[in-house]
Amino acid sequence: MQIDTDKIDDAALALMYLTLHDHCRAWKQIDWEVTNRLHEKGLIGDPVGKAKSVILTDDGLKHAKRLFEKLFTK
């Protein structure tokens, strides 16, 4: 089976929107490979560190909201 990592990244970013707090922070309980790809795409700040959350960039926030609405709302 071939996995579409872009779809995985979209779903992870949408779920980060669900855990959003302090306007731009999301809990980083997502696989490290996924958070690294999201960082490389410029959607979140650097996930490396002891913090339990990551900062979504402005583009990341917009993209996360759009994906959350697309994937998880009626």
Descriptive report:
Pfam families: DUF6429. InterPro entries: DUF6429. This is DUF6429 family protein. The chain has 74 residues and is mainly alpha-helical. The chain has a two-stranded antiparallel sheet. α1 crosses α2 and α1 crosses α3. The mean pLDDT is 95.
* Tally of structural domains: 1
Rg result: 12 Å
Shape: globular
**Helix vs. strand class:** mainly alpha
Number of strands: 2
CATH topology: Arc Repressor Mutant, subunit A
| Low-pLDDT stretches | none
CATH architecture: Orthogonal Bundle
Number of helices: 3
Helicity range of the residues?
40-55%
The portion of residues forming beta strands comes to 5-15%
Average residue pLDDT: 95
CATH class: Mainly Alpha
| Main beta sheet | 2 strands, antiparallel
Secondary-structure element order, N to C: HEHEH
Spatial ordering of strands, largest sheet: 1-2
Separation of the first and last Cα atoms: 30 Å
